[in-house]
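ingest -> validate -> predict -> emit
validate: passed (alphabet ok, no gaps, 462 aa)
predict: started
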Amino acid sequence: MKKSLLVLLTFFGLSSFAQTSDDGFKRPLKEVLQEIENRYKVKLKYSEPMVKDHWVTYAGWRFRPSVEKTLENILPTQDMTFSKTGTHSYELQGYRYHLKTPEEGKEQLDYLSTRYHDKESWEKRRAALRSCILSTLRLSPLPAKPASQPIVTPVRTMDGYTVQNVAIETLPGLYVSGSLYKPLKPKGKMPIILNPDGHFGDGRYRADCQYRCAMQARMGAAAFSYDLFAWGESALQFKAEDHRRSLAQTIQVLNGIRILDYLTTLKGVDTSRIAVTGGSGGGSQTMFLTAIDDRIKVSVPVVMLSAFHNGGCPCESGMGIQLCEGGSNNTEIAALAAPRPMLAVSDGKDMTQTVPKYEYPFLQRIYGFYGKTDGVQNVHLPAEGHDYGLSKRLATYDFLAQHLKLNAAAVKNKEGKYDESKVTIEKYPALYVFGDKGERLPANALKSFDELTKVFNESISQ
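emit:
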């Protein structure tokens, strides 16, 4: 009888735990979730650490006839949210601070648009945002640059281009590794194209990255692909989980700046023609670098421009630059490129799904302040998903060729179509700077995130 009564009371949110206003009708989160499962006949997926020692105040009062309304009332009190995984199942997740709904993204763009109506008011906002981004990243002023020379491997000769691996010391003991692709027989000065890596499997070693950089080189550019922090050869110095620390965002931006410093010193480059393009997390870096570095003249963020998604990794949003100046987002940050040429490549199956409707018109308005509405373009692929696949590369080749004055004919077949067949896809070890097992890593290389934090703090205090 007592057990039946307890079950009945629990169903109505009246269990034996603290059920008065004196202590806020407080109940353990796990018990509340079990009650939701029983009442609504659903399955909730979560890990024990997510719910251990968590309590819900006014728990019974938060229930609604709808299971989703109930979850919406209860989970935010725990900095949690949920996603539907089946007809009767849900997965609980930590609060996704970087994410809004598409409608909320549009609402923020509409609000931001009220803050500037012409070039003068936009330039004022632009200057404030740029200053805030640099200070938030703790890169104002920039830390001192190490005096060491880049570490390079022998040049490898391919069909119409060469490849050489390079490691650059960006802070004392901190190295970023990449590969430099150059035309075999340059005709005139070479434009520079940075290719920051994104969160795709196999990092910069994957085939689509090699295709992209080799094609850029065969068209006449000096193209450089490089690792994310704590990915690729950076993993010789740091643990994988260090990539998800907030300082990773700062380090990746600093790495991009230092790489550009190096590339602009190379013999035969044209420092007036510099571009950057990357996909996913590399798309975030593309937008951030262009926003703060005027040396970059052309930008192509791929599958990342969004008003409602600010990058799900702390390496994209961990320092909170999207909170600058009363709140911003990646679309407004991307707009700091204006009036420099920009191509936003988007698709229908990720966070860039609304670009043609919301983000692109916003950017066109900003470019219009300079009389260059056509300076920003959008290639939208509604049936495609989150990658830097062939169709995205083809759109990028066209745009880069146009604005960097590249020789697109050098990489087209008799039918006038881009032909990637002459690109050699190398095995991963061929792209390493420090050897198959990291045996050539310099003796001064940092070996922990704590060491990096110390070095960074010392560098910015000098």
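Residues 119-136 form the longest helix (18 residues).
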